[in-house]
């Protein structure tokens, strides 16, 4: 069994969406070996920190919260698609050139995976491409940017996917991953009543 | 494939260690559909909130941090052992009655799994029992209390396990799990430089 870690490291100097100060995680050491005999830390973080899953509530009023999404959505056969040559956004036409099967989790590898700082012009999934994936009945869509869309009024890509029960993972790191088939495991923490969760996302080959 | 969720829900009224106020997670909604067109939350939480993994640094000066532990520790064959009849602590003698194999992840099911409030007299793993598991070369040990030990001066159970590279999971929920063999998946978030992480822990049967 070969395990590939496709998660962002979570630290105070990591990239955050639009470099907003309030989105940076803050760690506090509450005990260490100078003051006691153990080491303990707490964290303040946004639910959309690093590699994370969006549940429907993120963009859909009264949508499902992260604790209500079935766990088998997060352990799935999966396909990584290489779009590293795409400049601006992934379109329906880009997707039509790939073999996409029903009930598959798709991960979109782009030039975003090669950037460690937030890129205001990150490659995203265009709304008609999202509609195409809805029609293909995929199980989930992951991308290697902190957002799955930008500059689309009303967030149509999010809404098309989330209203169809299609899970979104943002903030993947796919630089070292080749196009092909894998098993993905990306389980959210069991936060009650919220719209998202950071995850440790991995791919497995030859399970 | 049958998936069993063995994680605690994370909410503001969950049980925390010794009911300490500062250990309770705090959620803040930073945007909702009254003030914007999306829902966003952040959280302040202790790394030992709910179901979580302790890395060596928790009790060992200069011990490995959670991001340095190999990922194959967290995806493993695993055995649930039923100790629901134990009153005070799990001893070497209790363990000797069970079949324990090298490189196995052991989960200790006790009466703790049936309590939703913090129990100051929770069942724990006694230090000689920890030494026995070290000699058996298990991969990891999980328990259904927020601590793997109590009232043992110097935290010997933690130290014996963590100094041997044996992973500890605390805060499991095993009420509905029968003794037997499973696959466990319990991946920590990729926090850099800290001693622990909350996890979503699951068991899989018939993968």
Automatic annotation (TrEMBL), chains A, B:
GO MF annotations in UniProt: arylformamidase activity; metal ion binding
Keyword Hydrolase among UniProt keywords: yes
Pathway participation: Amino-acid degradation; L-tryptophan degradation via kynurenine pathway; L-kynurenine from L-tryptophan: step 2/2
One Pfam family this sequence matches: Cyclase
Cofactor: Zn(2+)
Cited InterPro entries: KFase/CYL, KFase_sf
GO biological process, one term: L-tryptophan catabolic process to kynurenine
Keywords from the UniProt entry: Hydrolase, Metal-binding, Tryptophan catabolism, Zinc
Record field: catalytic activity: N-formyl-L-kynurenine + H2O = L-kynurenine + formate + H(+)
EC number: 3.5.1.9
PANTHER family noted in UniProt: CYCLASE-LIKE PROTEIN 2 (PTHR31118)
Known function: Catalyzes the hydrolysis of N-formyl-L-kynurenine to L-kynurenine, the second step in the kynurenine pathway of tryptophan degradation.
Quaternary state and interactors: Homodimer.
Protein name: Kynurenine formamidase
């Amino acid at each position: 069994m070969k395990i590939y870690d496709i998660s962002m490291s979570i630290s105070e100097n990591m990239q955050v969406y639009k470099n907003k100060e309030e989105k940076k995680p803050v760690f506090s050491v509450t005990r260490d070996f100078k003051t006691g005999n153990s080491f303990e830390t707490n964290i303040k973080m946004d639910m959309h920190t690093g590699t994370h899953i969006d549940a429907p509530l993120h963009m859909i009023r009264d949508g499902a919260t992260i604790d209500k999404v079935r766990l088998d959505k997060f352990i799935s056969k999966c396909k990584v698609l290489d779009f590293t040559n795409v400049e601006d956004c992934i379109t329906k036409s880009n997707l039509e050139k790939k073999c996409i099967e029903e009930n598959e989790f798709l991960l979109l590898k782009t030039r975003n995976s090669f950037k460690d700082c937030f890129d205001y012009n990150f490659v995203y999934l265009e709304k008609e491409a999202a509609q195409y994936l809805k029609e293909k009945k995929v199980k989930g869509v992951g991308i290697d940017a902190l957002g799955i869309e930008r500059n689309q009024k009303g967030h149509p890509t999010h809404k098309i996917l989330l209203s169809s029960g299609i899970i979104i993972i943002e903030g993947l790191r796919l630089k070292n991953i080749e196009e092909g088939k894998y098993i993905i495991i990306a389980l959210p923490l069991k936060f009650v009543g919220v719209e998202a969760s950071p995850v440790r996302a991995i791919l497995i080959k030859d399970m």
